[in-house]
Amino acid sequence: MEEDCPNVQVIHVVVSKLDGEKHEVHTEDNQIFKYKKLCICTGGKPKIIARDNPYVIGIRDTESVQDFQKRLTNARRIAVVGNGGIATELVYEIQGCQVLWAIKDDSISCTFVDAGAAQFFLPQLVAAKEKLEQPVKRLKYTTGAFKVSRVTSDALGGALGPDWSVGLDLSGSKQESHNVHVEYKVEVAQILTQEQFKLTGKCAEKFIDKREKAQLPSGSGILDDRWPVYIELTNGKIYGCDFIVSATGVVPNSAAVVENNKFGLSEDGGIKVNNKMQTSVMDVYAAGDVCTTTWEPAPHWLQMRLWSQARQMGAYAAKCIIADMHNEDVQMDFCFELFAHVTKFFNYKVVLLGRYNAQDLGSDHELLLRMTKGQEYVKAVMKDGRMHGAILIGETDLEETFENLILNQMDLSIYGEDLLNPNIDIEDYFD
Q: What is residue 202's DSSP assignment?
């Protein structure tokens, strides 16, 4: 960055505290940096279950992914706890290893998609993974090797982007493709070592191979003490595994800067910001996962702690800082008019627009659905004849059309269910 931006100086240190009154940033190697304006972009930190357990890891940055790859190489079975984006991508990408997927919901990937879309994805859990080498059209950022003055356990690297798994070898020690077992509506009751498991006198669940599933009775327990760690779920089942991946989301990483400062904080610890990304501490701004927006959002925008949204917030915060220094006004960026997120789950393109899961729309909304098994899943969220959100899975080519229909709030009542009629090219119709 220093080569591309001569006015930028990058300093690799860990911040120990912030003194908002004196406009000072203190680091762990006892350096003090003065500032005129400060933007806090410390991101989020993973909510790791049993943080000090050596058999439990979180995946948040490139360093943790490298650690995961090393462990996976010799693994026969792992457990993935969580139901968000990282968990969904992991479960699909892992090969040559049995995967227990423990989720607290009654459908997979519900952080992003509804139960209908989850059903659309389910066949991919047992299908052989296709090797498709497709170009990545998004700009990718990488990190170089560097040293900080003193790395602590709380020092995190950059968050993973939407294409983090592209090109990574996520293979275990077994010669098989997908072998995923999902446990629904459960949480982790306790994590046991091999010795602790033996003392319980309980039996571990047999991990039923998808090819054996039709022949074996469900819930057949065995005294399986071959595993280094065991995970007991709230439904009473115990599974042995080589290690556990905690993918249960993130919380704002604000601890180092909020102490002894008068920041307004949300319930989850996020630093509250106004519509200029300003915090309650003079000359201090915040952007990304570490902050919580407090302005009245546009009708079709909502905050989610996503890499893409954090990048947008950072760019807007920079504009606000420059405008403030020059006593100028700045208009709210257009990216805050409509929630839009593009990712890939189970090798399908996934586009989320507006109130895609009918968030805050009440019960008087309706859903229009179109699904072609193995190809596409289209859901439009309608209220009072107008579109308020959409989920598009597969190569639908509808994202631009739906984005405009949500923003324009055109009355679509006369079209009814024909809005998603596959025989009508609505992309050209509304062009």
A: P
Residue owning tokens 């007991």: 232
If DSSP codes are grouped into helix, strand and coil, which group holds residue 215?
A: coil
pLDDT tier at 234, thresholds 50, 70, 90: very high
Residues in Cβ contact with 84 at an 8 Å cutoff, skipping those fewer than 6 apart: 109, 111, 112, 247, 248, 249
Using CA atoms, how far apart are residues 353 and 213, in angstroms rounded to an integer? 38
**Structural tokens at position 405:** 């229909």
pLDDT at 255 over 70: yes
Q: Tell me, yes or no, if the pTM score tops 0.90.
A: no
Query: Percentage of the chain with pLDDT > 90?
Result: 61
315 C-beta neighbours (distance < 10 Å), count: 12
Tokens 């899961």, residue?
A: 357
Closest CA to 238 of 269, 275, 193, 175: 193
**In this structure, are residues 246 and 53 in contact, taking their beta carbons and an 8 Å threshold?**
no
Query: Order of strands across the sheet with 77-81?
Result: 56-58, 243-246, 77-81, 98-102, 180-183
Q: State the pLDDT confidence band at 304, using cuts at 50, 70 and 90.
A: very high
Assess contact for 113 and 265: CB atoms under 8 A: no
φ/ψ (deg, to 5) at 414: -70, -20
- How many H helices and E strands in the chain? 8, 24
Closest-CA residue to 41 (of 391, 287, 378): 287
Instruction: State whether residue 325 is helix, strand or coil.
Output: helix
Give the rounded distance of the alpha carbon of 410 from its chain centre.
32
- Measure the CA–CA gap between 383 and 392, rounded to whole angstroms: 18
What single-letter DSSP state applies at residue 336?
A: G
User: Which amino acid makes up residue 139?
Assistant: L
**Long-range contact pairs involving 61-67 (C-beta distance under 8 Å, separation at least 24):** 61/156, 61/157, 61/158, 61/159, 61/160, 62/142, 62/143, 62/157, 62/158, 62/160, 62/164, 63/157, 64/157, 65/160, 65/164, 65/168
Distances (CA, A) of 90 to 85, 100, 188: 9, 11, 19
- Residue 357 φ/ψ, nearest 5 degrees: -115, 25
The sign one gets for the Cα dihedral 215, 219, 224, 229 is: positive
Nearest Cα to Cα of residue 72 among 234, 243, 287: 243
Q: Is the dihedral of CA 218, 222, 226, 231 positive or negative?
A: positive
Q: Which residue has the higher pLDDT, 59 or 167?
A: 59
Letter for the amino acid at 340?
Answer: A
